[in-house]
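Key result, reporting period 2: structure in, sequence out.
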C-alpha cells in the first residue's frame, strides 16, 4: 500500500510540474504576442509618419523648383490649320533664372506648362493658320530650287541650291519634276543632303 501512496504522490508531482510548465508557456506566448503586436503597431505608425514627411517634402520641393542657367526650355507651337507642331529648344535666358513655376506661368501667359523641372521646361500653345515650314522642291535650269509655301499655297523662292539634277535617279527627278512638298526644316535638310 505504501507503494501506491508513493506512486500517487509522484504522479501528482509530475502532474503539477507538467501543469506549471504549460501555464508558464501560455503566459510567455501571450506576452510575446502582445510584444509583437506592439512592435507591428509601432512599425506601422513609423511608416505612416515617414510617408507623411515624404509627401510634405515633395510638396516643398515642387514649390521650390527654380529655373537654373542650365535649364532647357522647349517651346511647342501647334498650328491648327496644318496640325504641325513646331518645336524650338533653347537654354534659359538670364532674366528667367531663379523663377518658380508660378512666375514662369505669369511671364508666358499665352503658353501652358507641360513640364517643369530643374532640367527642362516645356511650354505649349496653339495658333491659327499654318506653320512657316512648308516647302516645295522643284527642278529649274538643271538645279534643285526650294520654295516656301504660305497659307494660300503661294510659292516664294527661298533658295537655289547647287545640287545638279543631271546625276539624280529617274525616280527622284519625277518627284522633283512634279514638285516635292516637304514639311519642316529638318526634313528639308535631310532630303537635300540625300540629293547631294
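The corresponding designed sequence is given below.
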Amino acid at each position: 500500500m505504501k507503494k501506491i501512496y508513493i506512486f500517487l504522490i509522484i504522479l501528482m508531482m509530475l502532474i503539477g510540474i507538467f501543469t506549471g510548465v504549460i501555464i508558464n508557456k501560455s503566459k510567455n506566448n501571450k506576452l510575446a504576442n502582445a510584444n509583437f503586436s506592439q512592435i507591428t503597431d509601432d512599425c506601422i505608425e513609423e511608416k505612416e509618419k515617414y510617408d507623411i514627411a515624404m509627401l510634405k517634402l515633395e510638396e516643398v520641393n515642387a514649390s521650390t523648383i527654380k529655373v537654373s542657367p542650365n535649364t532647357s526650355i522647349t517651346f511647342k507651337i501647334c498650328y491648327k490649320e496644318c496640325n504641325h507642331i513646331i518645336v524650338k529648344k533653347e537654354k534659359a535666358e538670364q532674366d528667367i533664372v531663379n523663377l518658380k513655376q508660378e512666375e514662369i506661368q505669369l511671364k508666358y501667359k499665352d503658353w501652358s506648362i507641360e513640364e517643369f523641372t530643374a532640367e527642362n521646361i516645356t511650354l505649349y500653345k496653339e495658333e491659327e493658320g499654318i506653320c512657316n515650314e512648308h516647302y516645295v522642291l522643284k527642278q529649274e535650269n538643271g538645279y534643285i530650287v526650294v520654295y516656301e509655301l504660305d497659307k494660300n499655297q503661294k510659292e516664294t523662292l527661298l533658295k537655289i541650291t547647287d545640287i545638279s539634277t543631271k546625276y539624280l535617279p529617274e525616280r527622284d527627278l519625277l518627284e522633283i519634276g512634279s514638285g516635292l512638298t516637304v514639311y519642316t526644316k529638318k526634313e528639308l535638310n535631310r532630303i537635300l543632303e540625300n540629293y547631294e
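DSSP finds four helices and eight strands in the chain. Residues 134-195 form a domain with the Alpha-Beta Plaits fold (CATH 3.30.70). This case is discussed further under Risks and Mitigation.
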